[in-house]
Amino acid sequence: MTTTAQRRFPSPFDVEAPPGADDWRRLYPYYYLFSEERREFEEEQFWFFDGMHNPEPVYPFDTIMPESWWVLLNQFLTRVWMVPPTLGIDQRIVNGYLYVSPTSISDPAEIEARVPHFLQRAGDYYENWDEIYDNWIAKAEDCIERLRAITFPPLQEMEPIETVTSRRGTTTAWDLIASYNRLLENMHEMACYHFELNMLGYGAFMTFSDFCKQAFPGIPDQSIAKMVGGVDILFFRPDDELRKLARLALELDLAGAITSNEDPDAALAAIAAAPNGDKWRQAFEAAQEPWFWFSTGPGYCHQHRAWIDDLTVPFSAMRGYIEKLQRGERIDRPLDQILAERERIAGEYSELLPSDDDRQAFGQVLELARKVYPFVENHNFYVEHWHHSIFWNKVRDVGGVFEAYGFLEASEDIFYLHRYEVSQALYDMLTGWATTNPARSAYWRDEVQTRKQIMAKLRQWAPPPALGKPPEAVTEAATVMLWGITTEMVEQWLGAQDGGQGSDNGDLQGFAASPGVAEGPARVITAVDQLDEVRSGEILVCPITAPSWAPVFSRINGAVSDIGGIMSHAAIVSREYGLPAVVGTGFGTKQIHNGQRLRVDGNTGVVTVLPSEA
Amino acid sequence: MTAATHIRWFQDCGALASAEVGGKCAGLGELILAGVDVPPGFAVTTAAHEEFLQAHDLRRHEAELLGAIDYEDVAAVAAASAKLRTLVQGSQLPAGTVSAVEAAYGELCQQAGSDTVPVAVRSSAVAEDLAGASFAGQLETYLWVEGSEAILEHIRRCWGGFFTAEALSYRHRQGVADQLLMSVGVQRMVRARTAGVMFTLNPVNGDRSKVVIESTWGLGEPLVSGEVDPDRFTVDKVTLQVLGRSIGAKQIEHRPDPERRQVVVAEVDAERRAAASLSDAEALELARLGKAIERKFGGPQDIEWAVDGDGSEIVVLQARSETVWSRRERRPAVEKKASALEYVLADLLNR
Fold first, then answer.
1. By the CB < 8 Å criterion, does A348 face chain B?
2. Searching chain B, which residue's CA lies closest to the CA of residue A112?
3. Digit-coded pLDDT (tens) for A256-296
4. What is the pLDDT of residue A155?
5. How far apart are CA A323 and CA B219, in angstroms?
6. Is residue A565 very low, low, confident or very high in pLDDT (cuts 50, 70, 90)?
7. Which residues of chain A are within 8 Å of residue B333 when distances are taken between CB atoms?
8. Distant-in-sequence, close-in-space partners of B100: CB < 8 Å, separation ≥ 6
9. Does A529 touch chain B (CB under 8 A)?
10. What are the strands of the beta sheet with A466-468, ordered from one edge?
11. Which positions in chain A touch B241 (Cβ < 8 Å)?
């Protein structure tokens, strides 16, 4: 039998471009590409497809997201906290898709040398966590406030008279350059805050998780998460607001306006025309800031719009809540139950430990995990939803300036340019504006067209799950916990590559993310705009879910995702909704078809396609 | 002697009564006191046994037959055994015992709404008196016994169980005194759809956060004796979730057959072999029950249970302390550290 170490995934150097996309490398900066001079190193690394954050080919501008963590997350691991065994998580792009590669230090002496630094540095943060987290919220909110203040004035034929009367000396051209630079800086600043705390947060959680697994072999991940999880989680707030609005609509006799209009604009118009419409409208407006800055995706990609920009999801959810309320059903999350369960579970496991020393240790690691957990749960709202949704809109504003000047055909075209290419294009446009001579807008218009064609081809390519040399065992914390990649999964990929199937009987194995067993017809959703196809009682099958999908969670019987570990959004949301879920199945959206009857076992992590009812 | 001293209903058989009703019946009494569903029944007491021995001067016969015996002489032991058992089984029970058993059985029948409710007749030795000699697996249980006459006969058979050749040799080896007494349990027969054993810890690694259940179709006898590969369920004791489920081959079943009025041994067909003999909901109910019994009795338990009849009423047939892991010293789960930070570091280094 060959071992994992001897078998290999394809070399990244042997991956061929899909037909018609030979020139894909022009979309990305040189440092993102596999290259001959790093070949020896690169071929010996394990690279896995990061479908969790970037299921689609990455738009050139959108590389700002993975690029931000490439430096900013890694620096915290390797240069700030000096996490003893961890080297960084590297990245490359292949045919438009993002691959990542975690590495660890193997030399014991090198690890040992980092220990005292880690204890000093991480110790300081853990010790002062609550205060640091309070400050963190203030920093994050301030960063968002400054982001909102960034504006991109249009280039005009003649500078506004205020440029003269204010004697400010600076101009629209300077404003655009400065604002764009500030926009990029602001994004990187938020990324710093993001990674300032999240690796320490995950580390503390992981410690508690590993403790439990050692003491209680086979303990479900969800039990571990339940002992730590809070109830006052920000990313449930947007959905809570919708429940309130649904109730208010019923109180004000406006339910019909919402339930009978699928189009949000039509619903809003019907409400405006109704006697109590103003009152509801006020509540609706008040709920939007900040709670509708809630991305319909994980927030890493510009195409995932926030609720505030696309009211389809919130209105569809409100329709569901109103109908439930009309049937006399409860629509609240059982918060008191969740909290009582958390204490009961932790208490009972503690009692089952062998010794008082163990109980003391359990108490210590649980306390730390609970201390860090509000950040772990809430940072998504501040960072990915609130901040990033505004950020993407600001980028659109820059695109709008290009469009208005006639430099780009459409504001959205800006996403086909890398952020540093935008700097060039901006300067190019300004030279044209300032000299009144032609700028090279045709260069970028042609380039955007070429890139659109290439990306369309790249979208049809199926990225292999991994490249390069498989690890003997997957141990790196983030890889397991965030990406949900395990040694078994790597084995399975190798098996599939050797011509085998995912499993013999057609069952899909993933992580048991949320307990319970459910059956129902499958609804395969690959993009957020298909969400309104989801019908009551169906099993949602998706590549990855975002928290803002929560409203459909009140309608479905169970959830299955291709990607994600136990700490992924799908898992957390499912647990909160008491919905059986299996995450990280790998192939769910590819193997399952709409309408097939599924059995989702959230206790064992198995998804079974049931024989059709003849 | 009054009826009350010839028999005792299980609900009156607490641990204090164990000298009178033996270990097995006392255990059932404790379960009933703890609120657990146990099939109803009564113990024929050691006092009734004593009265029987005296009525027929059986101790003297025993002393005569065994006094000069050479225990190495297998044929001689077998001959003495046969004589003693014939004697026991051929002797009439004293009238007081007969009427007490008849009356109690009548009540069981009345409860069940049947003239001849089938019962199991079980030996319940006074294990505490045997100085570690448990007679494990040697004393008999008779299934599907109907009518007073048959019950009285099987009570004598149970008592005769002290005189099987194996029991005689065993007593000799263990140096057990001859003043042995045995109570006999008479218990309404469980019409088990499914039965099995449950441990309130993981018997593989001693993990106390799990309940492990083995189950098979029909009565639990072939599972206990190892004749079948049972289904196995692992349940989390805290969250009460089924964590693992494996389907065993369940080759045969011991099935109570009301028409033939006996327990039949039958092959299990392919479809039922492949099916789980216990639903997840039943596994969870069992685990809940196991957890409650463990809490009541103050330690990990080894429990025999059955799913009774057409419904899914779970009854417990026996609960005793788990002996393997409970007697070991429990090793600490983690190496003790000074602070949470030290645990984080250790976790990072040990991954």
1. yes
2. B349
3. 999 999 899 999 999 999 999 999 999 999 999 999 999 88
4. 96
5. 50
6. low
7. 211, 214-215, 353-355, 358, 361
8. B3, B6, B7, B44, B48
9. no
10. A86-94, A97-104, A46-49, A466-468
11. 220, 223, 515, 603
- pTM (predicted TM-score): 0.81
Paired tokens of A304: 């995932």
Contacts made by residues A103-107, CB under 8 angstroms, sequence distance 24+: A103/A45, A103/A476, A104/A475, A104/A476
Q: pLDDT per residue over A82-123, tens digit each?
A: 988 877 899 999 999 999 998 878 788 988 999 999 999 999
Gap between the Cα atoms of B8 and B14, Å rounded: 10
Tokens of B216: 């098979």
Residue A220 and residue B210: Cβ atoms within 8 Å?
no
pLDDT, residue A550, reads 65
Residues 56-115 of A with CB under 8 A from B: 83-86, 111, 115
Q: Pick from B251, B206, B246: which is nearest to B226 by CA?
A: B251
Please report the pLDDT score of residue A5 as a whole number. 44
Given a contact cutoff of 8 angstroms between Cβ atoms, the answer to whether A549 and A574 are in contact is: no
Sign of the alpha-carbon torsion through A307, A309, A311, A313: negative
Q: B8 with B42: CB under 8 angstroms?
A: yes
To probe the interface with A, which of B238, B288, B326, B329 has the most A CB atoms within 10 Å? B238
Residue A126 has pLDDT above 90, yes or no: yes
Nearest CA to B124 out of B139, B102, B104, B142 is that of: B139
- For strand A581-583 and strand A558-561, is the pairing parallel, antiparallel, or unpaired? parallel
Report d(CA A491, CA A470) in Å as an integer. 9
Which has more confidence, A353 or A487? A353
Chain A, 447 to 506: residues with Cβ < 8 Å from chain B are 475-477
CA pair distance B159, B148, nearest whole angstrom: 17
CB atoms within 10 A of CB B281: 10
Can you name the residues that pair with B255 across neighbouring β-strands?
A: B264
Helix, strand, coil % over all residues of chain B, rounded to 5: 45, 25, 35
CA distances from A402 to A64, A397, A427, B165, B228 (A): 20, 9, 11, 103, 77
B250-268 burial string, b = 16+ CB within 10 Å, else e? bebbbbbeeeeeebeeeeb
SS3 A535: coil
> Which H or E element spans position B342?
helix B340-350
Give the best residue of A357, A371, A372 to mutate against chain B (max B CB count within 10 A): A357
- Chain B hits for A123, Cβ within 8 Å: 341
B227-272: pLDDT as tens digits: 889 999 999 999 999 998 999 989 999 988 888 888 899 999 999 9
Q: What is the pLDDT of residue B269?
A: 94
Which residues share a beta bridge with B235? B211, B242
Give residue A486's identity as a one-letter amino acid code: T
Burial grade of A255 (CB within 10 A; 0-12, 13-18, 19 or more): buried
> Of A546-560, B78-92, B208-222, which gets the smallest average pLDDT?
A546-560
Mean pLDDT over A343-363 rounds to: 95
ipTM score: 0.81
* % residues pLDDT > 70 (chain A): 93
Identify whether A470 is preceded by a cis peptide bond (ω within 30 of 0): no
B207–A contact, CB cutoff 8 A: yes
- Residue B265 host element (H or E): strand B262-267
Q: Which residues of A touch B349 (CB under 8 A)?
A: 84-85, 111
